[in-house]
Amino acid sequence: MTAQTAMRRTQLYLAPLEGITGYIYRNALEKYFPGADRYFTPFIAPDQNKLLRTKETRDVLPENNHVPELVPQILTNNAQHFIQTAQVLRDMGYEEINLNLGCPSATVVSRRRGSGLLAFPEDLDRLLGEIFDGIDIKVSVKTRIGSEDADEAAALMEIYRKYPLSELIIHPRTQKQLYRGRADQELFGQLLGSFPFPVCYNGDLLTQTDYETFTEKYPQTEYVMLGRGVIADPGLFHRIRTGETTSRKRLREFHDEILAGYREAFGEDRNAMFRMKEIWIYMFRLFPDCEKYAKKLKKAQSLAQYQCAVDAIFEQEMI
Predict the structure, then answer these.
(1) pLDDT at residue 309 above 80?
(2) CATH classification (class only), 3-242
């Protein structure tokens, strides 16, 4: 199978990135650079005090989302919190919920959430058992391959095989690796075909070449999740689907729509500007000669200073 054939049959997902891929970003991406089949929300973290906070509710409200399919993601190690939150989301019209077992951040891991739970396979097994005993909605899982070592993967995958997951999204790094080193694509390839449910690949596909190389090597992969590569190059999904290059004009319109959305959502400029700076951490890659203006953008303390730096960056050569 050629990469072109793989491109036609592979489903593309946008990975959730906290602080970036909220509904304002998702809607703009779908409007200006369509190509993703599914979008996943940044994680919802319910606790004993509240299932959904105001910000999380706003992000999942169906009327705020204009994308082909949206899957809410929950971060918890408490089955009842997951079930109760899933019921709220089901009542909003959602048909699938994703359980986050992949987040590697220290604050999450220290509370045995995200990939922190992978170090305790008995607790993980118990959590999944309680969730599937108490839920009537599809549940998918996003996971890493272990806590400390990839040798943990076999036992973890056996746990997942016990349950009727709607999908398993595998980021083939351990929690300890964070985002260092290379994702273990070979291990993912060995796991393909060994599950009774769909499996999605996630990790290190940052460019169209990365994507095409991966799908050529593992043509049986039907589902691929991209994250940082899309934030760095918002046109990536669209280019994979159509072959069209990212237009400078369209990229600027995309940028301006997100900025306007943030200004409206936050009710003031300063928070909107700082949220845009988080996106630029990735998107500077599109403008390799913008270092001088990138520094000005990072130092900007007012919207006028920020806009001036953005204008200068968009005058630079794009890759």
Answers:
(1) yes
(2) alpha beta
